[in-house]
Request: fold
Amino acid sequence: MIIHILAGGPVELLPDLSVFIKDEVTWIGVDRGVYTLLEHGIKPNIAFGDFDSISQEELQEVEKEVAQLYQFYPEKDETDMELALNWAIDQEPEKIRIFGATGGRLDHMFGNLQLLIGALKKDAKLDIEMIDQQNIIFVKAPGTYKVGKSNDKKYISFIPITSEVNGLTLKGFKYPLNDRHIPLGSTLCISNEILMDNGTFSFSDGILMIVRSTD
Reply:
């Protein structure tokens, strides 16, 4: 099972959603993201939000088109995205992709990045990606991982999220590393490239955020 979540971020930063349309995918719309899905010809399976960012007429259309609609008061402890992501995690999918979660308001973007970290702490094996037109973002716990070369997302960066990341080793990259200590605030691992078909990264302690980008 694969779950796709579309938040209410700037539409101009969305990737081509048609690439991600498959029969076995469950689509979740979050607040204005529900209406954006409908505008792109994608019928959401489920919707979450207080829907304060859409008009009453748009909300009526959402209510008509979406079978499972979870509407909340704006005054709540969790963000709409957090409620949607928690539901998605509970379904134990093989993969979660999040769109419309970057750009626009920085507090929303940083909050969504925090959700990636929180999800990792709940289940380190859960595969979650945050995708926009220019970037793919994911976080990893200690271990060894293989990443494939991408002509579209040429650049790859490794950013420490915890106070330090220990034992970082990069093999098959333009700028390799061997058992390096990377403190929080370091820019050592920004803008690397994979040389062959695949690269491998590993580390023994901490949490890494990986960003794959195109110019």
Notes: Residues 2-133 form a domain with the Rossmann fold fold (CATH 3.40.50.10240). The chain has a mean pLDDT of 91. The two ends are 32 Å apart (CA to CA). The chain is about 20% helix and 35% strand.
